[in-house]
Amino acid sequence: MTRTLVDASDRWKPLSQLLTELLDRIAAEIPGCVGAALTTGHDGGPLSVLATHGVAERLAPAEVRHGGPIADAAATGDVVTTDDLFADPRWPGLHRDALADRWRQVRGVVAFPGPWDDGGTLVLSAVLDGPVGPEVRAVLARYEKLTADLLVVAEAAAAGDSAQVLAMLASRAAIEQAKGAITALRRCGADEAWNTLRRTSQEFNVKVRDLAVALVEHLGQVPVRQPDGTIPITPDHPARDAARQLWTAFTADRPVGP
């Protein structure tokens, strides 16, 4: 059973059915999947479980409260996996004995984080009845961008502000361009590219979207083409300095720091 954890007053209500269908699709594509969840956070604030499928209806909120792959993925920006959730010493607050019988089938869990706006993080997670295989991460990676786009539309529908909608779309476009550039340059996955942007923005105290535009402009030595009708994102000096240092770290293959 898939459940969307929203009510009539919730800002995600306009897309509740789409979120439900999204998790249904993810669960159907992953062999042995017994649960899936979509969780979001913003600017280090509390996490919200927006929608669940199967056993994740109870497991995802438990991970948010007591610690688990979802909470760790949101905090670090890294993909978090375990082949046996309740035997994993990283999360002593999760106890199988206190759970319903159907939870006894839970083994592997994957939590896949990604951006959905500047300062916002989403986590797609899957719960399995066995160890985690490589196909699980691949499925979640394919759905991460679609999920982020759905959340942008949901936010826009709730806000009813066309300027905000356009700003969010511009931010998403800039981040995707930068992720693509890092992926090509470093020959890494999209999740590693996002984590690089996220950590660098935190280290230099600049917005992710400003860093993204500055990095792409630094690489191409031309202004980034931004979506028509949007207010252009113009990086300030700190963002451009962060982009320059990130590029230097790439070419020198050394850690990034202010």
How would you describe what is shown here?
The protein is of the alpha+beta class. The chain folds into 2 domains: 2-159, Beta-Lactamase, CATH 3.30.450; 162-252, no CATH class. The chain is 50% helix and 16% strand. Helix 5 (162-186) packs across helix 6 (190-204). It is globular, with a radius of gyration of 19 Å. The mean pLDDT is 81.
Number of domains: 2
Stretches with pLDDT under 50, minimum 5 residues: none
User: What is the 3D shape?
Assistant: globular
Which band does the percent of strand residues land in?
A: 15-25%
Largest sheet properties: 6 strands, antiparallel
Per CATH, the superfamily of the largest domain is GAF domain
Specify the number of helices.
Answer: 8
Q: What oligomeric state best describes the polypeptide chains here?
A: single chain
* Average predicted confidence as pLDDT: 81
- Strand segment tally: 6
Instruction: Return Rg in Å.
Output: 19 Å
* Derived structural class: alpha+beta
**What's the end-to-end separation, in Å?**
48 Å
CATH class of the largest domain: Alpha Beta
Q: What order do the SSEs take from the amino end to the carboxyl end, as H and E?
A: EHEEHHEEEHHHHH
Helix content: 40-55%
CATH topology of the largest domain: Beta-Lactamase
- CATH architecture group name of the largest domain: 2-Layer Sandwich
How is the largest sheet built, in terms of strand order? 1-3-2-6-5-4
Protein name: ANTAR domain-containing protein
Pfam families: ANTAR
InterPro entries: ANTAR, WH-like_DNA-bd_sf
Organism: Amycolatopsis heterodermiae
